[in-house]
Write a structure and sequence with these properties.
Blueprint lengths: L1 H25 L1 H4 L3 E5 L6 H17 L3 E5 L6 H8 L7 E5 L2 H9 L9 E11 L1 E4 L8 H10 L5 E4 L5 H10 L7 E4 L3 H9 L5 E4 L2 H8 L4 E5 L25 E9 L4 H14 L3 H10 L2 E6 H21 L5
Parallel strand pairs: 1-2, 1-3, 6-7, 6-8
Antiparallel strand pairs: 3-10, 4-10, 4-11, 5-8, 5-9
Length: about 325
């Protein structure tokens, strides 16, 4: 009988301990220790990879784990809308690239406006790159632009989708030089590089990682980047400054957004955590390999940048008759 009573006491103690643990897990205090970062793309892309690498370090500085959740669809707008509609406590954030912020809203009706979110911090930037096959009759940015100008509508270029960031980056440059080319939209940079390597298109316009290995073995000749300065992975590719078009810079950036109403103290905590993470060895190694640059930007500077890009893309979209 004595053994039975002891066993019963031990059972009840374990049950109460388990119940206490469950209550703790579901309490508001515990829930707030987990920061959910929604990345509105499918897993495995450049945006997803960057946020996973940086967040792994950032969680050591933010005071709790960071959970990455992918919510793909509609050019990133579904995932961003989900964040905007969440509680503005700063524990549900969005990790985005230009598409759902300054691009898709130009051509499609989306369930939010720039007033519905707070730009928290920009982490990195990378240029779009223009690559051709080895036998293309140009070897630098200036001769590339001249060849295109002399041959209206002769050359095709592939991008990550009609009205997408890569097309707008290209047209932003081409329009200033009266260059007429034919855009061939794909579903992403991965498909674009396949089209380029199989001779379906003449020019690859997209992010650096998909074309890097092919350029390294001589299957692609990269002539121009969409940034003011040259890129470390392609030091021989001309920059926009080299060809006198510095004002037409378009960068692929990675930015964290929070819902409108998130308090300043929490915003500052996120900024500090990710700013420190951007200096960590794993993050710096990833940026170097991906051809990206650490480019931390916050506050009014970040807000002004997004506003200016939105306006610039609006003008390009209208010129291409892609207005919603």
């Amino acid at each position: 009988m004595r053994h039975l009573i002891i066993s019963l006491i031990q059972y009840l103690a374990k049950g109460l301990l388990g119940l206490s643990a469950m209550c703790l897990l579901h309490s508001p205090v515990f829930a707030q220790t987990v920061t959910k970062l929604i990345v509105p793309t499918a897993p495995g892309g450049g945006t997803d990879a960057l946020f996973r690498v940086v967040s792994k370090d950032a969680q050591r500085f933010i005071g709790g784990p960071i959970s990455i959740q992918n919510v793909a669809g509609a050019g990133g707008t579904i995932g961003l809308a989900q964040v905007i509609n969440s509680a503005p406590d700063g524990y549900t954030l969005a990790g985005v690239w230009p598409a759902p912020v300054t691009v898709v809203p130009q051509t499609t009706k989306v369930p939010y406006t720039p007033n519905d979110y707070i730009p928290v911090i920009q982490l990195s930037t990378a240029p779009y790159i223009f690559c051709v096959r080895p036998d293309f009759p140009a070897n630098d940015g200036k001769s590339f632009m001249e060849e295109l100008r002399k041959n209206p509508k002769k050359y095709t270029y592939g991008t990550d989708g009609l009205g997408g960031p890569a097309q707008l980056a290209a047209e932003r440059i081409f329009k200033t030089q009266n260059i007429q080319t034919v855009d061939v939209p794909y579903k992403g940079a991965g498909e674009t590089i396949v089209g380029f390597l199989s001779n379906q298109i003449d020019i690859y316009v997209g992010s650096i990682p998909p074309v890097l290995q092919h350029a390294n073995v001589g299957k692609a000749k990269c002539l121009l980047v969409s940034s003011v300065n040259r890129n470390a992975q392609f030091p021989n590719a001309s920059s926009l400054k080299d060809i006198g078009l510095a004002k037409e810079e378009t960068l692929l950036w990675r930015v964290i957004l929070a819902p409108k109403g998130t308090n300043t103290e929490r915003i500052n905590q996120i900024v500090q955590a990710y700013s420190k993470a951007m200096k960590e060895p794993d993050t710096l190694r990833y940026l170097d390999e991906a051809g990206e640059s650490s480019a931390v930007l916050t506050g009014k500077e970040l807000q002004d940048k997004l506003t200016q890009e939105y306006v610039a893309f609006s003008q390009i979209v209208k010129s291409l008759n892609l207005v919603k």
